[in-house]
Fold this protein.
Amino acid sequence: MTTDTPWTSAETLSRLSRQKFGKDLSSLVAEKLLNDGGERGLWNSHRDSCGHGLIYQDAQFQLVAVHDGHASEGKVLKTWDSSDAFVAWLEEQSDFSLSGADESEPALRPRTPSNLNNQRITLARLRDYVHDCTASLAPFRDFVFAADLEFGFLVREYGFRKIRPRMDGRECVVAYRKNPNAGITIVTEFHSTPFIMVTLTANSKEESFSNKPLVSLARKKDPNWKAPEFSSGDKNESAYRRYLSAFAELLRQQFPEILSPHVNEPVAQDARQPAGAGTNPPYQAMDRSSLNKRIWGAAITVIAFLLLVLELRYFKVESTPAATGSLRGNLGILLLLSLPWLALAIGFLQAVSGASIRNLGTTFAALPLRRRIGLGIATVGTVIGATFAAAYVS
């Protein structure tokens, strides 16, 4: 099978890796496919041929040929009824064996020559899928993999939720959250020394901190503790893993309060409850710190509403500076006029969540997408409703 396309040339095919994917990675792929429930899986999505994809549907692991991004409707090339069977097959595969060039895999041989070695399942794609590493994070792939491998125990052992890696300006951010109490954020910038920030919200102010460098917390416990050295010239996964493993071990050994933040025990039910009430879930006490934050949030909301009333009453359209005036002055006035709306939204969120303003980002980053969307809609609705009410009062 020959073609003029460069990815199907004999030279390109000869360079394809024969390294087997291995059991560890294959097990992670199977686990993630099960968790995705057929909604995501591993496939490309664009016009025309999208190569091969891996999905889980109809209680089967499936290798499918994808067209126009419709993986669930693609031709099924191979199926496995159990996770063990799928892992046993995948761990023995390589970039070469899944490219279509391996004659021992006739089911993967393409009918169209240009589909040979075209968007097939590869080691790089599997790792990107498992570690949620998008194309935009390609320069930081080794960092993302290393952080996930060394701090994956947070998810497996302590119930943290991994936040999808992202670019934040020039920085790459990998974060783990345990709502609403704890968060761990690992950041690097173009292969510089990574730094780890931690957040802990607890009942006692002495135990609460937001985005505190883990190094400074460690030195409070042990003034002689030194972070491991990291050379900016090391740009590989092994170097990142050596550096990050020391901090992972530090968290395990010295900071159980961060890994397992305090959770209030349910209070005893009132003995005077009517018969049958014991079948209901027990009530839980709201800790004083959370209650205080909710009260302050409600107070901010009320104050913002009053400011909104005053603004709508005393600031008219003609009060706004003319366009020919100072640009800085105009922007300043617009910023001033927007503050009640902003304070109203923040106050509402704090009153609802019980999290302080400085920890709102940490709290809501760990919420499921549907809850975040719902809270966003509720916040916008509250601001619009308050605006109409303030206009009526005015």
Notes: The beta strands are 49-57, 60-67, 75-80, 161-168, 171-178, 182-188, 195-200, 209-213. The chain has a mean pLDDT of 79. Residues 132-259 form one domain.
